[in-house]
Specification:
With 658 residues, this protein is mostly helical. The chain contains 25 helices and five strands. It has two domains: 468 residues, no CATH class; 131 residues, no CATH class. Strand 4 and strand 5 form a beta hairpin.
Length: 658
């Protein structure tokens, strides 16, 4: 006889649980919108955020293939089309530019992560409805998410589908028909960030291997290997690998690893560690491991979920060890991605609160609880409230350190230079000269490149590059070498982009905010300063004074909230039909946003490669087709067999615990 499984559809959430869930999602979104509201920012924050914006603009207008034709010295990551595809579809439906959507993207992604974490708590840890929002808050408002939001949008988006994939694989191991959902969720991750999707797939495969002992027992009882927990879990992972391979085949560039240095990874890890609050989170997670291990309910689902969470939480330890041993491992990003840590910490806090209140499951089942203790109940409630408040405060603190990468004077100059470039004859390339004289010339050049590409028209992106160094060395078609390792490396790196444009007589532009030699350079060519701080060192001069460009206004609180709600609602709506078709009742609502992301990324990628541009009516048609396809699949599923394999339909299942 197999162990009883919990039927998720017997415990519909009551209105207090829904109210708590709504308050949690508002709090999570508030963490990430607060930065823009309190500081009245006019541009999205985050180191890599400008790159995400210009990539989305380029894909919408010219398709994903255009990503592979950008000739400059920074990584375009054309092998990760997921973010631009998703944001372009949002942009078409909501009428907002990728620039504005980048401001609310962290809030939207954190809300979707919170929903997935709540679904994991309900479906895999078998927690009652009122506890699920606490797990959602722990993950969605985690400092780890705040760190990802500071420029790692691909990781942030992948976290949404990662939690959904974990739920689907664990349900598949438990006998549910969720293999297709798992394949879609895991496979879509390959188009978002294939390296971390490979890590997630390895973790889920390790889970399948860890379930071999109980699968052997099931096999001895007559269950075919393919229907054992290991067989189901590994089958779901294999399906995800197949879908992921297809997604990578559609990407405009082959998978490539970023060429970052071990020294840079060490610096970033040391910068990130204080914001993770690991001295608090790690002990709470250890308590959570102990509490979940002590769960003695008939269903094996919580113990399987615990195995996965322990495997996931071990990844940053292994990455740090590899980095310290000399490998070039992105330990800081592995740490940010380890959302198992806040989930385990939430389980630990709730277990401690239950112990104080005398309502722990183990105690009550053994008959030793002696009823609830009023004082203990108050202390337990206070502990949970303090942990929730501390989580939000820690996330706000980490998020507050993320600032815009450009100030108003530089932004005005960049936009003015972009307006000049947009007026050049079609095909005439332009090079921006950068020599800030700071200790980080490579970073200054990367940011200048991204903001310039963000500001020019999309048909100019492939003809704009940055040169780091001296004007005379640029004219000689050589990198600038000064005997300073970091500068020389940056100049050589960006020279690879300008060299491709040199034979086409490029225009050369200098800005006073980006070149310390600006006064000398501008004086060498009379009339070259076409606008305050903007000089055309080579190329046609405008006939009169060139007007300085305007800069974006500050969005209102209402607009930010409306865009957040719209993106969350749109994604959930697209995923709702697929969730009904591919998931059992009780987990459909919290996992619907993750399925929405997966379907939009995969469907949008396929549509782009078929020649459909993801803007205007064409993008709306793609959205409508993907949403309608989910409900067609849902109707077909309702007409077919139930959500469990035939040989398991008759198994009794006790109602879930309160």
């Amino acid at each position: 006889m197999r162990p009883a499984r919990v039927r998720l559809d017997r415990d519909g959430p009551r209105w207090p649980a829904w109210a708590l869930a709504a308050a949690t999602l508002v709090a999570v979104a508030g963490v990430f919108l607060s930065l823009y509201v309190l500081h009245q920012l006019r541009v999205p924050v985050g180191y890599d955020t400008p790159k995400y914006v210009w990539r989305a603009r380029l894909v919408a207008d010219q398709g994903m293939a255009a990503l592979s034709s950008v000739p400059h010295g920074v990584a375009v990551t054309a092998d990760r089309p997921g973010y631009p595809v998703l944001v372009d579809l949002w942009s078409a439906a909501l009428g907002a530019s990728p620039f504005r959507l980048a401001m609310v993207f962290p809030a939207v992604a954190s809300v979707l992560i919170a929903a997935g974490a709540a679904g994991f708590a309900r479906a895999c840890l078998l927690r009652p409805a009122w506890q699920a929002p606490l797990f959602g808050l722990a993950a969605g408002a985690s400092p780890l998410v705040a760190l990802m939001a500071g420029g790692h949008a691909d990781n942030l988006l992948l976290s949404v589908v990662a939690l959904g994939a974990a739920v689907a694989v664990l349900l598949a191991a438990d006998g549910r028909r969720t293999v297709v959902a798992a394949a879609l969720l895991l496979g879509s991750g390959a188009a978002i960030h294939w390296t971390f999707t490979a890590l997630l797939g390895a973790l889920l495969a390790a889970l399948g291997l860890a379930l071999v002992p109980e699968s052997v027992r099931a096999r001895r009882g007559g269950t075919p290997w393919a229907r054992t927990p290991s067989g189901r879990a590994l089958g779901a992972v294999a399906g995800g690998a197949a879908v992921g391979a297809g997604a990578l085949a559609l990407a405009p560039a082959s998978p490539a690893l970023p060429g970052l240095s071990r020294h840079g990874f060490l610096i970033k890890l040391r910068q990130a560690l204080p914001d993770t609050w690991w001295p608090v989170v790690a002990p709470a997670a250890a308590v959570g491991v102990a509490a979940l291990a002590a769960d003695r309910r008939a269903s094996r689902m919580p113990r399987r979920a615990l195995i996965f969470l322990v495997l996931w939480s071990a990844t940053p330890v292994l990455a740090v060890a590899a980095l310290e041993a000399g490998a070039s491992a992105p330990a800081h990003r592995v740490l940010e991605f380890a959302l198992a840590l806040p989930l385990l910490a939430a389980a630990g806090v709730i277990a401690a609160a239950e112990g104080l209140a005398g309502t722990g499951r183990a105690r009550s089942r053994a008959g030793r609880a002696g009823g609830r203790r009023p004082a203990g109940l108050a202390l337990g409630t206070l502990l949970v409230a303090a942990a929730a408040a501390g989580t939000v405060a820690a996330s706000v603190s980490a998020w507050r350190g993320t600032q815009p990468t450009i100030d108003d004077p530089e932004l005005r100059q960049v936009r003015t230079a972009a307006a000049y470039v947009d007026g050049l004859p079609q095909g005439r390339p332009a090079i921006l000269l950068v020599d800030t004289g700071t200790f980080r010339p490579d970073v200054d050049a990367i940011l200048a490149d991204h903001w310039m590409l963000l500001s020019v028209d999309t048909d100019r992106i492939a003809t704009v590059a940055v040169y780091v160094g001296d004007y005379d060395r640029l004219l000689a078609d050589r990198p600038t070498v000064r005997g300073e390792e970091r500068f020389d490396r940056g100049s050589s790196r960006f020279y690879s982009g300008t060299r491709a444009l040199a034979p086409r007589n490029p225009v050369v532009i200098a800005l006073s905010t980006l070149d310390r030699s600006f006064p000398k350079l501008a004086a060498a060519r009379p009339g070259s300063e076409i606008a305050p701080g903007v000089a055309v060192l080579r190329g046609p001069l405008p006939p009169g004074r060139f007007a300085s460009a305007s800069i974006p206004g500050r969005p209102s609180v209402f607009l930010l909230a409306l865009l957040t709600l719209g993106a969350v609602g749109l994604t959930t709506a697209v995923g709702s039909g697929w969730s009904v078709a591919l998931l059992p009742p009780g987990v459909r609502v919290p996992v619907a946003p993750a399925l929405g992301v997966a379907v939009l990324v995969l469907g949008g990628t396929a549509a782009d490669r078929a020649g459909i541009r993801l803007h205007g009516l064409a993008a709306l048609a793609v959205l409508g087709a993907l949403a309608a396809g989910g409900w067609v699949a849902a109707l077909r599923a309702q007409e077919g067999p139930g959500g469990r394999d035939d040989d398991e339909k008759s198994e009794p299942a006790p109602p879930p615990p309160d």
